Amino acid sequence: MSLAAVTGFRTWQPRGEGPWAWLAAGSVALSLLLLAGLLTLIAVRGLGHFWPASVSLVELDDGQVFAGRAVRELPLPAADGAGGARERLYFTGNRDLDGHVWQWVAVARITASELPRELVVLERSRHGDFIGRLVEVVTAGQQGTSVGEGGRGGGDGGGTATWTTLQERLSAVDALRAERDELQQRVIPPLVRRLENDPGDRATQRRLAETNERIRGLQESMQTDAAVLESVDGRRIVLTLDEVLRSWRPNAMSLPEKLGAWGRGVGRFLSEGPRAANTAGGVWPAIFGTVLMVMLMSLLVAPFGVLAAVYLNEVAHQGRLTNWVRIAVRNLAGVPSIVYGVFGLGVFVYGIGGSIDEWFFSDELPSPTFGTGGLLWASLTLALLTLPVVIVATEEGLVRIPDHQREGALALGATRLEMLTRVVLPMAVPAMLTGMILAVARAAGEVAPLMLVGVAKLAPQVPMDGEFPFLHLERKFMHLGYHVYDTAFHGDDIQAAMPVVYATALLLVLVVVVLNLTAIFLRHYVRARHGALSRH
Amino acid sequence: MPELPLSPPSQQRPDATRLESDRSTAMGPIIDFAPDVSCLDVERLSLSYDGKMALRDLSLRVPRHRVTAFIGPSGCGKSTLLRALNRLHDLNEAVSRQGSIRLEGQEIHAPEVAVDELRRRVGMVFQAPNPFPMSIYENVAFGLRLQGGLTRRRMSDIVEWALEAAALWSEVKDRLRASAWSLSIGQQQRLVIARTLAVRPEVLLLDEPASALDPISTLKIEELIRSLKSQLTVVLVTHNMQQAARVSDYTAFLHDGELVEYAPTASLFTNPRLARTENYITGRMA
Ligand SMILES: Nc1ncnc2c1ncn2[C@@H]1O[C@H](COP(=O)(O)OP(=O)(O)OP(=O)(O)O)[C@@H](O)[C@H]1O
Ligand SMILES: [Mg+2]
Predict the structure, then answer these.
(1) Confidence (pTM)
(2) Does residue B77's CB lie within 6 angstroms of at least one atom of ligand 1?
């Protein structure tokens, strides 16, 4: 017997005769390829964003010089018949100097292109990246180290001393910034709250004033140092160091250094909040919002879905009406998600939320507390959206439980409730988890209804913090899916935002996969506990 | 075989010896004894599924602390009758029932009877073993946990006793925490019997308990049944004539939802009164 015959379906060769088997196998291969291609695309584009790519110094045939990172190359439309002409896109940064950050050049016009080690890239809090040379660092009161006139490629490999000074000063500024952030985020809010409760509290007033003074002081010391920078065509700018977020010299970096920088870039992307209208910075609030919302949704949908399925399958009279309800539930799964969003907005946000505001938060009206979109309403809306999935999956699990299991429990003197809770429901747990897996997969990727019921373009505060009641259900939250949409279409530089879009999309996929795997492992664990389920 | 003190065959008809033509339907069943210590008392029980009659006006009395076998062709209503005895039909909306069943003189359909309490007193073992997806120990402890109020110590004593009684203890005592589904089918069936015994029922209903078993397991279960009757009343449904002859004290032959003949096992098998009964036990009728 051949190996293929022994291993059966483990071979790649489709079994069965005729072209249909090849057709079926081909379809599988095609879908796998599409999936792999999709993931590769967003992974490469998204992760490449964090790579400190080399910056070329380019000279054109008309004498123009610029520095930039080559992004892509396309064939030129061959108007003059000369085939093979190509055109290259550079990212040149320096929006404040040039008014643009992209430059197309015909490859044929390039007379020289080199990678000087001294070229620096600075990520700034305004105007995006700067690409050029570092001339000198000016610290308070004294003349800073400078590269010296003409500073191009000195004996020390391109102003390494100045570069080192810059790094030192920058880490000093980082320390100041961290202290300021600490004061602003941890010290000020409790003081403000205390004053809200008791406006006459002198001691607190004094502490608040002192802290604000301290913050002002920190801010000033952050601005005392400055870097003098020069673009490769000789225009200078002066940048106070508090404006510099990151700095690197890509051409002077070794591969391990680049990898390290890439890792730190990814880490920052995952852990920081967004900047520059969401086109830069990190997506931490969006990750947090997505995961929290999905978890809340699961907590809401699980009990309702399971109870509904139990009612339909175990309690209700199995008649025509029950069947109609069943069909209705299944069809509910096909209602477009935006319709659920409309329902959530009308019923949860304006209806229930409005009433809650009138009863409990009337002193804050007209500014709404629950009467506007928020975490709770979004989770509820998605719970409603995924309810049919959970009901159907659970019901399928319940149907599969043989009647003799139920009768076995009853015959031992169990009441119907005991039979349900001790035998039937535990046996249906894997099916319920299957339902939850499907629900999570659907909910985590859903964006449209969220736009109506509580997702925010920018929510500076995540909905969970150390402040009572810790979980703030009424707050708006950020979501990876919406972040993708927002970044892609609402920034002013779509080209620059695209890498962030890819990275965020990749992250969304990863979050969904992780959430799903969690549920799958849970189900596997539950199944493994009782061994060979297939025997019954 | 221990003899049950029998009163004279009161319901026996004078012409009931060997009827050549099958006239029992018209004349009512042949009942060759009247147990004076009856445990279950079925009276004029009729039962139908969705209007389709499965039991017709059936009356019989099951003696206490004896093994009573129900035999009859497939579909004659043996399981239906058995399930009626602990009201397992209650949940099936398609079933309608007339007539009464008394357990120790108490009508089991009376409103004051709690059905879970009744099922604890009348335990049932099904045709196919149906252990729960739990450990062996938890399966046996299931009914005990429902009752509650037992110390851990007492619970494990009862579990051991029940497994011992079901002749399973020696095989599973080292793996009580293993899944019940890892047992062989024969072991599973004995586990299910142990599970039922653990709640100390007064009556044990066995629906073809050995139909899925190999000869050795069957033998074990038969021994078990014989040993149990000192403590409880056993009702056994079986397709196996030898088995009925081996373990039962009384045998009832059912056909088409009716009781045809009911007599001490020895006399029913050696000297059936009706041709229908004889045909069935000698295998001339399906
Ligand atoms: N749940 C049910 N719904 C409808 N009809 C049923 C149901 N259970 C049994 N019946 C019918 O009732 C009649 C008696 O069935 P029952 O199961 O009591 O027979 P049985 O004597 O136990 O047969 P077997 O020896 O094959 O187990 C059969 O005609 C059967 O089709
Ligand atoms: Mg049967």
Answers:
(1) 0.77
(2) yes
